[in-house]
Task: structure prediction
Amino acid sequence: MKRGAPPIVVSGAAALSAFGFGWRGLGRALRDRALKPAVSTQLQESHAGVLASELASIPAAVDVGDARTQKLMSRAARLGAVAVKQALDDAGWADAREEIGCFFGVGASGGSMTELREMLRASRDDAGFSLTRFGSAGLAACSPLFAFQLMNNFTLCHAAIQSGVAGPNSAFYSRGNGTLVALAEAAHALSEGDCARALAGAADTALHPVTFAELVREGRAQNGFVPGEGAGVLALTREAEQPLAVLEHCGFRGPGLAPSELVRELLEGVDGLEVDLVVLAPWGASARATLREAAEARFAGAALLDISLGLGDSLAATPALAWVAALDLLVSGEAERALILNAGTDAAVGAVLLGRPT
Amino acid sequence: MAHGVDRGPLTLRPVFVRGVGAITPLGSSWPRSVAALAAGKSAIGPITAFDVRNFPSTVAATVAERFDGVADRRLALAEVAAREAWAQARVSAPPEMLGIFMGAESGRASFDTVLSLARAAGGGASFDHVKFGAGARALAAQIDVSLLSPASVSSALAREFGAAGPARTISLACSSSAAAIAEGARAIRVGLCDLAICGGVGADVDPLMLAGFGRVGALSARGISCPFDVRRDGFVVGEGAAVVILAAEQGPALVELAGEARSLDAHHLTAPDPEGDGAARAMRAALAASRTDTVDYVQAHGTSTPLNDAVEAAAIQRVLGKRLDRALVSSVKGALGHWIAGAGALGFLAAVEAVANGNVLPTAGLSEPDPSCALPHVMGTAIQRSVDVALVNAFAFGGANCSLVLRRCA
Result:
């Protein structure tokens, strides 16, 4: 988004969330009704009774790959692959996919608990966990590709393999702002002419038993935290006949300062602009209060939508879902310009500005 | 200042290499490592840190330093390399103009974590989710979360060097640290920071990594690392850290990072595109970005796996064509093994050595080049030759490719 350069526009999008498998209507649904979290089925065995924002089973019509391929994917990788496919279809990008860029915020993907169980069970002897048994029977008990479920970049690579997207790319570890970096890098790649079309987004889950256990022990699964899962993707280009929106700004800041100070600095990037919709994607009550207070002070009169209240928190995916929710409200004519503010567990904040095309 | 893309009028700035540092299995500093590498030494040897009986591979390239009392070996290695690079660079910048860009992966928990998980699972005959759920809570005091988070390396370096600029963690498996260098260069070019500490660390000589890569058949059953050789049968895991200081200001720098590019194979989880199209696109785009016609040296990804080496060799031949006549090619993995997330940064340092000092390091272990990998190899010991332009390749599991072009400063 160099000044003087052609604007970056949104040509398509995708969203997978507890509200369903599609992005149109997501913002309006979040505005009109709060999704009540339900007892998690994915955490049932390890953390019984946890309330979560969970996707329904992925319909075959929108899914990717065959059963064997799906088995090789982590949950986040599968959500990412489905979202990339949807975004490509939504943008009508069927041709020359090898030139399309792909920039993703990714989390710890999380391996199959079934594989882990089998590996551990086969690695035990009478004295407990045996390294020698692990090296033989333990390894033989799990899929040869188990290790690749654990690697973060496979959230991006599965999507690329399934959809044929093969342009400039990167996968940024994200608990919030890594997803903003992905969007900024996609915009940069477009501005510099590295590619003419690019996807930017994230897919992640807080519902993997090990991930949730991490959140518990870090003390982050409290104060009303609702674990979620999902994916959000924007299809970006320099030119489109009928763009959905214009990407006007993408900024991020921190960590290092108090959240309120970070937000103040961040909003200097959109100083003087009129905004009639502010979408918040905060982590926890404290961040929610900080973002809300700043938004109300700077953009009095703008409508406020807090997606975490409706969708829970899906870690790297949360900011991307917020962009797409805002896009829905822009496209449906309910807002002219939307500011999306996020604050993740990384003690950093980010802001994205989407406007209706003129 | 927000680290975003709305940056105002831009003139892309050049990027210079001001300092390098590394701790490798052949030396506790980069100059010591270079001396051993130039002599053709290899660090591949039997693993003694844990019981590897029955494992698919029993050798590795291991750093001798134990770092007793350090919970996360990645951090210890990265800090050694970064301090050396920083000391060499003799640079300074306001905290907000100093960025950190490191390649790292997560989820590849250390063996300690695997053991903790096994214990938390209850000790029964099978995985007990209920006990795991309860046990995981109790693990809070036992497991350092930094052992799991890929971002912890960048965070630790930011603390150590007082960096308040952009801090990014790139997770692209074996191309992570090359992509991190590319990200650092981009940040300097567009003015997000004036200095960037970039690189990567590999600390994967542990049972889980050997298990994972061994099960997929990627490791050398013979226990040799010999990129492009007819005997090659897989890679050998190595460990270490390589860090480079990039800067907008040339100062006394001898080397410029002139171009960087990335692509995806979009082909397979573990195997490269047999046509090498993704690799070729990354190389071509990086050379185009550098506006360079000639290439004197290629630091290849060269893992010593049968498929990767043949595909990369063909891609190099296709991209460089006649230009290959004046070039040399080698892979540092023959001597130091495959550092996974740290591999690209190590290759980058080898290329810097060639451009800055005319010291073209050899491919250790290569004695009988495979005809399917017909390249102008550097075998035995280092070759002294003036190198104006070098190309660095890093190709990852999953098909994420990154190429970097270095050029001697005018």
